[in-house]
What we know:
Layout: E1 6-15, E2 18-28, E3 33-37, H1 44-51, E4 59-64, H2 73-79, E5 80-83, H3 95-103, H4 112-118, H5 134-146, E6 152-156, H6 164-179, E7 183-187, H7 191-197, E8 200-205, E9 208-213, H8 215-221, E10 226-232, H9 239-242, E11 247-253, E12 256-261, H10 265-275, E13 280-287, H11 290-297
Parallel strand pairs: 3-7, 3-8, 5-6, 6-7
Antiparallel strand pairs: 1-2, 1-4, 8-9, 10-12, 10-13, 11-12
Helix pairs in contact: 8-11
Amino acid sequence: MVEPVIDVRGLHKTYGPVVAVDGLDLSVAPSEIFGVVGPNGAGKTTTVECIAGLRVPDRGSIRVLGLDPQADRNEVRQRVGVQLQESALPAKIRVREVLELFGSFYRHSVNVPELVESLGLGAHTDAYYRALSGGLKQRLSIALALVGDPEVAVLDELTTGLDPHARQQTWALIESVRGRGVTVVVVTHSMEEAEQLCDRVAVIDHGRLVACGTPAELREQGGGVTRMSFRPSGPFVDRLLTSLPDVTSVHRQGDRVVLTGTDEVATDVILALNEAGIRARQVSIESSSLEQAFLTLTSEDSPPASTGGAA
């Protein structure tokens, strides 16, 4: 088995009487884009700040690149880039200056002009921090997390304040960063972002792990189904489709066939029909969203998560 880049076991953190993280287990694979989602106050930011060595856990173990974020703090900070949920810089520091400053903190740094252009900051390198819009400040924060050419990047609320074009460009940048072998942890409130960007997603609620898996697996855990309807080119018996493992129901609506199943149901149905000499026409497919699964998994009616559930 591949050794995880991030391995968290039994993480526990309190702030006075408030339990922020309650026996959490997480494991992140090399070059994975790993999402962390959950309601406000679920413990997401505390978890990733403990992983990055910015907070000291009360108990539990954390290994990042085989290192202890507390005992090996200096080495971890050389190899892990962090974009915090909230950050501030001196009002009269220029974009170029702060990037050069942060780049000097690391043994290695990326090509800063290329990074600046990829994040749409090229026209703002001489601008003061105070003159930047909220979206540009967010882009600069991401740039500062990546300027040290990290092996692991922890990004908290990656695209908050970005317009749709900037959000798509940022997602493409993160994909390219992962393409260089960087492991990325993304904390987000955007289910669209988690679904589009992440290989796996951990759902945290009340400091505990509720569920973890690919977006498709989470949709299924949340009771999600895919609904498919089509008009067949010829007659066939329903058993042709009901015998498929991914199909959960089949019924007729006039000359249309309507069925439900898992995410893979459409592919399996089309293949089965083709083998029987039937073509599916006017196909319509509707899939449940990750947001619907999230609401189900974190609802008050959901069963409580087990302490220390493995991801």
